C-alpha cells in the first residue's frame, strides 16, 4: 500500500513538471521537430534532432532565433538539440540571467539534456551568453559569439566609433538601472566578466566582420580577445575582410560546427 502511495506521488510530480510546459505547439523547422512552449513564465523554443547524440548535447541560441541557421542545422543532423529562451529587451541584465537559470533547469532536469550546453550569441545576444556564463562557468562547454556585443557602451551606447542604437540606449540604461553618466564606470558588460569563464577553461570562438560599424571589433571582440588571453583563456577569432555587421555567420558553417563538436562531444 505504501509503495502504491509513493508511486502515485512520484507520477503526480512528473506529470506536474511537464504540465508546467503550457500549450506545446509542434511544427517543423528545417525538417526537424520544433516545440514552442511556455514554462515558468518563459517563452521557449526547442528543436529536437532525429536521434540525439550521446549525453544529449545542445546549443543555446541567444536572440534572433532562426537567423543564419546553417550551423544549427548541421548540429541538429549530428544529434544536438537547439534551444531558445526569450530575453528580449533585457540586454543581458540580472533579470535575463535569472530567466536563463530557470530555462537551464527545465532543459537539464525535466528534459534530461546535457549539463554543459554550447552558447551561441549573435549581435546583442553576446550580452546574455557572457553574463550568464560568468555566473555559471562550469555549466558551459564553449561559447560562439557572432559579431557579439561585448560592451553596452559601444552598442547601444555609441560611446566609441560605432553608430550606437539610438533610443535603444535609454532602454539598456533602464534595464541595468543606471544613468548615462554611471555607465562610464559600470562593470555590467561581458568585457568585465571574463575571469570566471577563463578560470573554468571555457573555449571561445568569435566570428566578426572586419568592417563592422554597428558593433566595432576594436570595441568589442578585440577587447574580449586581449583580456581573455591575458587571463589564460583560449579564444579563436575568425575575421571576415570587408564585411560589416551583416551578414552574420559563415556561408560554410564547418569551422563553427567543428568548434562546437570538439568541445561538446566526449568519447
State the gist of this model.
The protein is α/β, with parallel strands linked by helices and 267 residues long. Helices cover 33% and strands 21% of the residues.
Spatial sequence of strands, sheet with the most strands: 1-2-3-5-4-6-7-8-9
Based on secondary structure, the structural category is alpha/beta
**Name of the top-level CATH class:** Alpha Beta
In angstroms, what separates the terminal alpha carbons? 44 Å
- The CATH architecture can be given as 3-Layer(aba) Sandwich
Number of strands: 9
* Residue fraction in strands: 15-25%
Oligomer: single chain
Task: Supply the number of helical segments.
Answer: 8
Number of domains: 1
User: What summary fits the major beta sheet?
Assistant: 9 strands, mixed
Average pLDDT metric: 93
Order of helices and strands: HEEEEHEHEHEHHEHEH
Return Rg in Å.
19 Å
Q: Any idea of the CATH topology?
A: Rossmann fold
CATH homologous superfamily label: Alpha/Beta hydrolase fold, catalytic domain
Helix content: 25-40%
Which regions have little confidence, pLDDT < 50, spanning 5+ residues?
A: 1-19
Question: Which overall shape is indicated by the principal axes computed on the Cα atoms?
Answer: globular
Task: Write a concise keyword list for the protein shown above.
21% strand, 9-stranded mixed beta sheet, 8 helices, Rossmann fold, 267 residues, alpha/beta
Notes on the protein architecture:
A 9-stranded mixed sheet has the order 1-2-3-5-4-6-7-8-9, with helices on both faces. The termini are far apart. It has 8 helices and 9 strands. The chain is an alpha/beta fold and 267 residues long. Strand 1 and strand 2 form a beta hairpin. It has one domain: Rossmann fold (3-Layer(aba) Sandwich), CATH 3.40.50.1820. The longest helix is centred in the first third of the chain and has 18 residues, at 2-19.
Amino acid at each position: 500500500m505504501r509503495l502504491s502511495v509513493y508511486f502515485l506521488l512520484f507520477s503526480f510530480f512528473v506529470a506536474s513538471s511537464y504540465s508546467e510546459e503550457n500549450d506545446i505547439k509542434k511544427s517543423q523547422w528545417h525538417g526537424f521537430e520544433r516545440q514552442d512552449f511556455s514554462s515558468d513564465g518563459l517563452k521557449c523554443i526547442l528543436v529536437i534532432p532525429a536521434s540525439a547524440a550521446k549525453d544529449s548535447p545542445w546549443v543555446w541560441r541567444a536572440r534572433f532565433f532562426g537567423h543564419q541557421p546553417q550551423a544549427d542545422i548541421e548540429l541538429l543532423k549530428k544529434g544536438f538539440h537547439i534551444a531558445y529562451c526569450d530575453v528580449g529587451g533585457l540586454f543581458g541584465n540580472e533579470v535575463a540571467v535569472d530567466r536563463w537559470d530557470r530555462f537551464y533547469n527545465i532543459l537539464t532536469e525535466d528534459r534530461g539534456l546535457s549539463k554543459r550546453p554550447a552558447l551561441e550569441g549573435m549581435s546583442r545576444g553576446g550580452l546574455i551568453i557572457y553574463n550568464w556564463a560568468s555566473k555559471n562557468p562550469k555549466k558551459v562547454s564553449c561559447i560562439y559569439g557572432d559579431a557579439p556585443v561585448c560592451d553596452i557602451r559601444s552598442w547601444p551606447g555609441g560611446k566609441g566609433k560605432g553608430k550606437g542604437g539610438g533610443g535603444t540606449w535609454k532602454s539598456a540604461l533602464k534595464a541595468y538601472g543606471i544613468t548615462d553618466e554611471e555607465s562610464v564606470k559600470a562593470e555590467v558588460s561581458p568585457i568585465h566578466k571574463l575571469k570566471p569563464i577563463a578560470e573554468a577553461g571555457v573555449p571561445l570562438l568569435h566570428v566578426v566582420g572586419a568592417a563592422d560599424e554597428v558593433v566595432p571589433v576594436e570595441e568589442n571582440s578585440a577587447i574580449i580577445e586581449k583580456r581573455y588571453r591575458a587571463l589564460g583563456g583560449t579564444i579563436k577569432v575568425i575575421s571576415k575582410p570587408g564585411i560589416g555587421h551583416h551578414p552574420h555567420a559563415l556561408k560554410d558553417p564547418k569551422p563553427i560546427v567543428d568548434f562546437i563538436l570538439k568541445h561538446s562531444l566526449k568519447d
